[in-house]
C-alpha cells in the first residue's frame, strides 16, 4: 500500500505504515534508519553523516562508511571528512599525522611537512669565541632542510641546537687569563695593601700614645 500522506513516506514510491519507505523516487537515496529495536526506511536527497550515496540501476542507497572515525566519505574506503579531533590523510582518519606529514589545523588535514636531514656532530666547546679560559661553554650542532613544506604556514623543526659543555682547557696555555680572574686578584691585592696600611697606622698611633 502507498501511505503518501504519512510524513514518513515523503519521497517514497512505495511505503509501509510500520516500516516506512520501501522504494524511493528517482535520484533520492534509500536510508534504513534504526532506532532501538525498530527500523524504518527513509528517502533522502543526501545521505547522513557516516554514510555515502551508492547509485545502482535498481535503487540508490545510503551505505555506511567503513573507515574508522570517518564523518563523511566518498566511497566505502575513502573518507572525505573525519570526525572532530581526527586528521584526514589519503582517505583515512588519524589522531596524529604520519611521519613526514604535518597537521594543517584549519582544514584538519595532513600535508607534506618540512623534511630535515640528520644532525651533525656536536661542535667545539667554546665561549666568547674562545676554546679555553673558562670552565663552562656551549657546543652546537645543526641539520639541513632537505625539503621545504608544501604550505608556508607549516613551520620547519629546529635546525640548530646548543647545550652546555665543559671546556677541555680551563686556562689558556701561554696566554692571559680572563679579565674576570685578573680583577679578582687585583681586588684581593688592594684589600691586602689596605689592611697593611691600616695596621701600620695603628702601630704608629699606639707608639705615640705611649
From TrEMBL:
Q: Which UniProt keywords apply?
A: Developmental protein, Disulfide bond, Glycoprotein, Heparin-binding, Secreted, Sensory transduction, Signal, Wnt signaling pathway
- Localization, UniProt: Secreted
SMART domains given in the database record: FU, TSP1
Gene3D superfamilies given for it?
A: Hormone Receptor, Insulin-like Growth Factor Receptor 1, Chain A, domain 2, Thrombospondin type-1 (TSP1) repeat
Which cellular component terms (GO) are annotated to the entry?
extracellular region
Q: Where is the composition biased (Basic residues)?
A: 172-189
Q: Which GO terms describe its biological process?
A: Wnt signaling pathway
The segments labelled Disordered in the record are 172-210
Tell me which CDD domains the record gives: FU (cd00064)
Enumerate the PROSITE patterns for this protein: TSP1
This protein is called what?
Answer: R-spondin-2
Amino acid at each position: 500500500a502507498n501511505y503518501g500522506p504519512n510524513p514518513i513516506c515523503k519521497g517514497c514510491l512505495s511505503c509501509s505504515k510500520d516500516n516506512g519507505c520501501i522504494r524511493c523516487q528517482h535520484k533520492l537515496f534509500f536510508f534504513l534508519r534504526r532506532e532501538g529495536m525498530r527500523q524504518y526506511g527513509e528517502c533522502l536527497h543526501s545521505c547522513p553523516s557516516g554514510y555515502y550515496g551508492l547509485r545502482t540501476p535498481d535503487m540508490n542507497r545510503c551505505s555506511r562508511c567503513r573507515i574508522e572515525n570517518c564523518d563523511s566519505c566518498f566511497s566505502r574506503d575513502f573518507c572525505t571528512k573525519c570526525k572532530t579531533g581526527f586528521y584526514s590523510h589519503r582517505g583515512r582518519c588519524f589522531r596524529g599525522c604520519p611521519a613526514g606529514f604535518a597537521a594543517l589545523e584549519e582544514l584538519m588535514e595532513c600535508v607534506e611537512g618540512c623534511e630535515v636531514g640528520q644532525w651533525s656532530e656536536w661542535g667545539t666547546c667554546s665561549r666568547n669565541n674562545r676554546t679555553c679560559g673558562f670552565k663552562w661553554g656551549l657546543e652546537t650542532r645543526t641539520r639541513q632542510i632537505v625539503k621545504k613544506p608544501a604550505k608556508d604556514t607549516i613551520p620547519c623543526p629546529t635546525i640548530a641546537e646548543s647545550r652546555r659543555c665543559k671546556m677541555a682547557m680551563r686556562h689558556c696555555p701561554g696566554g692571559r687569563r680572563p679579565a674576570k680572574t685578573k680583577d679578582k686578584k687585583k681586588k684581593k691585592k688592594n684589600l691586602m695593601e689596605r689592611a697593611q696600611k691600616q695596621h701600620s697606622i695603628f702601630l704608629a698611633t699606639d707608639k705615640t700614645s705611649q
